[in-house]
User: What shape does this take?
Amino acid sequence: MALLHLMKDAFAGEPVELMAATVDHGLRPESAAEASWVGEAASELGIAHEVIQWEDGPGKGNLQKQAREARYDLLCAWARRNGITTLCVAHTADDQAETLLMRMARASGVSGLSGMPARRVHKGVTLVRPLLEVTRTELRQYLLERGIEWCEDPSNSDLRYERVRARRALADLAPLGLTPTVLSRVAENMNKAREALDWYVFLAARDMAHVQAGAVVLCQRKFRTLPSETGYRLLVKAIQWVSGAPYPPRRVPMEIAVLAARGGGAATVSGCHLLTTSKQIWICREAKAVTGVTSLPGQIWDDRWKVFGGDAKGCEVRPLGREGLFDCPSWRTTGVPGTVLESSPAVWRGAELAAAPVAGMGNGWTAEPVANEEEFFASLLSH
Assistant: This one.
């Protein structure tokens, strides 16, 4: 509510059209009425508002994580439909401090302790957090002084959730001087350190990395000479780029992957498989992660590939798999490990393999990566 009014004031008289959206997760009986109430408040300000329903609902596992990811996906899809390139969200210094505490509990490194970035791109939409240096207390005071009503989400007091427990811990830390403002400044300082590290990761990647068959390939000899944090961060970025995951893997499984890369082993993390050959480290899609992923020819497959060019009648794109690999007589001439090719796209006509362009069996078909090598290098400097 505070962000809604602040944005209205900030752009008063400017040639800027404001639109607002509320995601109704449907997790509480009151949520629909609350979302409708926000719409009425926006209408009074002359701001178009839309309520977005989380129709899929939660599955098993971490409810807050699922709700957060769904919220971002739904909001960004709404923004794209409406031609909106910039989306403001109302995270505060308190949210930043809670994030920092939760990541400290996971023994996060520099990136994790950088907290939430003030700006990032999610699915083609720029997310901006203009209130990261403002506390909840200050926002409530702003609303009170202007006689603006707001509603509190009761789940913000439910101790079953990690963030709520972190919020309670902040109250105990305040006498030590560890206030939301101080902790959010710590996150800002760590973000500056992250930017410096990312630059050296970028330089290292330019020296030793290339993209082949949709995989990131590193020179193992050069990788072994990198400082441990630089090598760690390079692998994290490579895994995120290959998997398309919006967030980096947790530190413990990543440390295992780094050891495997340095020691000539293999590891699986975040939907990716890491394997080593005599001279190279390959980071590719994990075969299990693409099992059951299908598309029609000409459409995007696994958010990573577009396959086109041949007779599409009765065909669909599926992963090549191990059995399909055996039907590709010249796959070894590609110079790509079989494990990498197994998770590559192939054209199937029922149970018959029609083409596997990445594995050397084109048959008139082409498999083109959606993102190229230069985009991988650019991703190393984005957050």
Remarks:
- The chain has a mean pLDDT of 94.
- The CA atoms of residues 11 and 18 lie 9 Å apart.
